[in-house]
Give the backbone structure.
Amino acid sequence: MVFSHCSFLLAVAFASDSAVSIEVVVLAQCEILVVGSNLPTVAAPGDTVVLPCHLEPTFDVRGLTVEWSKLGLKPDPSDRLSRVEYVHLYRDKMEVPDMKIASYVRRTELFADAMKHGNISLKITNVSEGDAGRYRCFVPKLQSRVKFAIVELVVATAYATAKRMDPRQWDTPPTAKQGRPGVIAALILLLIAIAVLCVVVWIRTNQKRKTPEGETCSNV
């Protein structure tokens, strides 16, 4: 659970004439945080994934710059400004493709409708093992001490194999499943038979304890 940082200011004002009334004003200023996920996002090659990132508390981020970059990349040697290209760059309310890594072209997007609620998660389609790594979600002009979050993407072939397996194969084989109703019916019949036998035994026992009909008892 992540809490936003809030500072509170308590102001007490006395009335100028005969300090009879007191006015208490509480001013609260909350710092907006960029929040990611502590758990890695796991995918198989070819999957579409969403790297989670949002602002907390809710804040309309459509007017700000949002940068998604991959950690560990080095600047392009041919770039005299030593700039590092982005996985996705959002600026002036639109994507800026000029500084995008070539392998991510036409594979990434933000959720435009959700950005007004502070959602800046990144969608990546057709992921490959080369996409695995740590990503940084950064809002450079955000008035906050926490302007970025780190999200990890794990792309594993083993995960794809597990996804392709039919979960029903992990259960009891179909032949055993088909026999279950018969077993249950047999158990029910057995319980009924035991109950009937118990009733018969109880009736016979009580009959033996009773005095035979027509026989009288006399005290001498």
Notes: The first strand starts at residue 5 and ends at 14.
